[in-house]
Amino acid sequence: MSGVGFDGPGRTKDLLAAVCAHADEIRAALLARPGHGAGPLDDVLAAMDAGAGLAGPLDVLHAVLQASGDALGLLAYSDHDATTRGLQPTGISETELAETVYLCPTDRCTRYWFPIGSAPVPGCRFDGAPLRADHL
Ligand SMILES: [Zn+2]
Fold first, then answer.
1. Which of 27, 43, 77 is the last residue of a domain?
2. 64 and 92 share a domain?
3. DSSP category for residue 123
4. What is the pLDDT of residues 106-126, one digit of tens each?
5. Which region holds residue 3: left if phi is over 0, alpha if psi is between -120 and 50, else beta?
6. 131 alpha carbon – ligand 1 mean position (Å)
7. Which of 40, 57, 59, 85 has the smallest number of CB atoms closer than 10 Å to its CB?
8. 40-88: pLDDT as tens digits
9. How many angstroms separate the alpha carbon of residue 106 from the centre of ligand 1?
10. DSSP reduced 3-state for 6
11. How many CB atoms lie within 10 A of CB 101?
């Protein structure tokens, strides 16, 4: 087991991090399914806008994605594994990479992003605001 606690209290924020970072891909996956729309995703985004409880809509979206053939559901869209793997590319010092981390500007999800070269800082789904820089 990886020890990543997706069933703990942080599960909603972890599911939300997948939506925050990958809503467009999730929408494409939903729309690729005949007979299904992007409703489950829109419900999550609407709940985000309304400040409503997110655990329910997130679980529905997660289940719909799992039913469409991806056993990982929303967790398939988690950035965390890829980000961790990208932490130590050859030729770039760890200290240089560890100086700054970008976090969800609303602190509502567990998304984080490390600067990659001159790539533009991505925005959060909540209001489109760029992720905020923090120092480790
Ligand atoms: Zn976010």
1. 77
2. no
3. B
4. 788 888 888 888 888 988 877
5. left
6. 8
7. 85
8. 999 999 998 888 889 999 999 999 999 888 899 998 987 654 444 444 4
9. 6
10. coil
11. 17
* 8 Å CB contact between 121 and 102: yes
Residues with CB under 5 A from ligand 1 (ion): 20, 104, 109, 111, 124
* Rounded to 5°, angle at Cα 107 from 102 and 111: 50
The structural domain count of the chain equals: 2
CA 32 to CA 27: how far, in whole Å? 8
Given CA atoms 126, 131, 132, 136 in this order, what sign does their dihedral have?
Answer: positive
Is 15 a domain residue? yes
Residue 83 in tokens: 């980000």
Mind giving me the DSSP string for 51-117?
T---HHHHHHHHHHHHHTT-TTGGGGG-SHHHHHHTTS-TTS-HHHHHSEEEE-TTS-S--EE---T
One domain for residues 95 and 65 = no
Range of the domain at 53: 11-77
In a domain, 2, yes or no: no
Where does a domain end: 40, 57, 77? 77
Q: Has residue 25 been placed in a domain?
A: yes
96 shares a domain with 39: no
